[in-house]
Design goal:
2 domains; five-stranded mixed β-sheet; about 15% strand; about 25% helix; alpha/beta; two-stranded antiparallel ribbon
Length: about 180
């Protein structure tokens, strides 16, 4: 790096972002799919403002984390990818319950540069409760929901999303925090 570049505070050349999108595309190909993975993105994304202030809103948590499944192999922090722990239908849990054991061994993430030791990064229910207690949000919805990480856009859009929306509406949530791992 030249003196001029150092003055800008640039990171060293070896400190590059992890090319996770390319890695996922490569991984998808190694699974035997005929076509490259196509990222879901839209030309127009609707924006819906909150109908009331956040401090008065009921917030629902949606996560892609999976409930721990004893007997299905290693699932703890740093565990290798474990397809046996994937789930294929939406699930719900009681937001008022003290403990939930959710894991992320079923998803592909960079296990070299991430420890995955802090479950709050994929399941921030405790933080939402604290935000409600502090008056930052109105309240936490009575249930949280799990969104499957299927590799099918069609299944996600035609099956999982309508099911999640129905459950979120049943919970009378005003907004959703989506934590996708």
């Amino acid at each position: 790096m030249t003196e001029r570049e150092e003055g800008f505070g640039f990171a060293p050349e070896h400190d590059q972002p992890i090319p996770y999108m390319q890695r996922i595309c490569d991984y998808y190909q190694t699974l035997g799919y005929g076509a490259p993975y196509r990222w879901a993105h839209y030309a127009e994304v609707p924006f819906t403002p909150l109908r009331k202030p956040l401090r008065e809103s009921r917030i629902c948590l949606v996560t892609t984390a999976a409930p721990y499944q004893p007997g299905k192999g290693e699932q703890g922090p740093g565990a290798a990818y474990n397809a046996a722990t994937k789930f294929y239908t939406v699930y719900s849990g009681d937001s008022a319950a003290a403990d939930h054991d959710l894991r992320i061994a079923h998803v592909g993430y960079d296990r070299t540069h991430t420890t995955a030791e802090d479950s709050n990064t994929w399941f921030p229910l405790a933080q939402l409760r604290r935000a409600a207690a502090a008056g930052l949000i109105g309240e936490v919805a009575p249930r949280f929901h799990g969104a499957p990480t299927n590799r099918s856009h069609r299944t996600t859009l035609e099956q999982d999303c309508p099911e999640l929306l129905a459950r979120i509406r049943q919970d009378k949530a005003d907004a959703v925090v989506l934590v996708a791992v």
